[in-house]
Amino acid sequence: MTAPRSEGGGVQGPALVVLAISFTQIGSAVAAMVFTMAGPVGTVALRLGLSALVLWLVVRPGLRGVSRLSWAAAAGYGLVLAAMNVLFYLAIDRIPLGTAVTLELLGPLTLSVITGRRWLSLLWAVVAGAGVVLLSWNPSESLDPLGVVFALGAGVMWACYILLTRAAGRHFAGLAGMTLGMSIGALAVVPFAVATTGAVFLRPEVLLAGLGVALLSSTIPYALEMRALRSVPPSMFAVLLALSPAVAALSGLVLLGQDLGVVGYLGIVCVVVAGVGATRTKPRAG
User: Fold this and answer.
1) Is 15:173 a contact under the CB 8 Å cutoff?
2) Could you report how far apart the first and last alpha carbons of the chain are, in Å?
3) 237 Cα distance to chain centroid
4) Where are the domains of the chain?
5) What's the pTM value of the predicted model, to 2 decimals?
6) Among 29, 77, 223, 262, which is most buried by a count of CB atoms within 10 Å?
C-alpha cells in the first residue's frame, strides 16, 4: 500500500525543482566558459539548436494540420526565447552570473507585481528595488552598464516568455510547441552566430561543449521540471524559481570565481525575498 501523496508532492517535487535550477545555473556558468570559443551568440545558437535536435528525436512532433495561428504562437515563443537567451548570455559576458540572474528576475517579478494589484505587491517592488541598489553598489568594482542593460532586457523577454509559453501551450499538446518554437529560435540566431564567429561554432570541440550547455541548461532542467510539476503546485513552483539568483551566485562563485561581496549577496537576498513574496501574494479578485 502506497502512502498518500501530499499537496506539495512531499520533498521529492521541490527537490527536483531546485535540482533543475541548479543544472540551469551550472549550465550558464559552463556557457560563460564556452564564450572564448564560440562567443555569446554562437553559444546561444549551439544551445537552442542542439536542444531542438534532442527534442525532435524525443518528441517527434507532427506538422500536419498545424494552423497559422498555432505556427504564430510557436514562432512568438521561439523568437522571445532566442532573444532572452542572447541578451542573457551577452549580459554574463560582461557582469557576474549572480548579478545577471538577479537583474533578469526583475522581469517576471514586475509581471507578478502588476498582476498582484495589492499594496503588498508595491512592498515587494520596493524590497526588490533596494536589492538592486545594494547589488550595484560596489565602490571597488562598478558594473558594466551595457551588461546591466542586457540583463534587464533579458528580464523583459523573460516576462514575455512566460506569457507566450502559456499561449503556445494552448495550441500544442505536450512538448510539440516547445520543439517547434525552439527550432524557430535556433534558426533565427544562427545567421547572427555566423556573422559574429564565422564557422568556429561548428568545430567538433565547440559542438561538444555546446552539447554540454544544451543538456545542462535546457534538456535536463526541462525534464526535471516536467516531472516536478506533476506533484508541485504552480504557486510553490514559482516560489522555488525565485531562488534562481542565489543558486546563480553560488555557481558563479564556485565555477567562475565571481565573489559579489557581502553587500552584493545582501542585494540578492532582497530580490529573492521579493520574488518569493510577490509569487505568494494572490491577485485581488476583480
Assistant:
1) no
2) 44
3) 14
4) 12-280
5) 0.81
6) 77
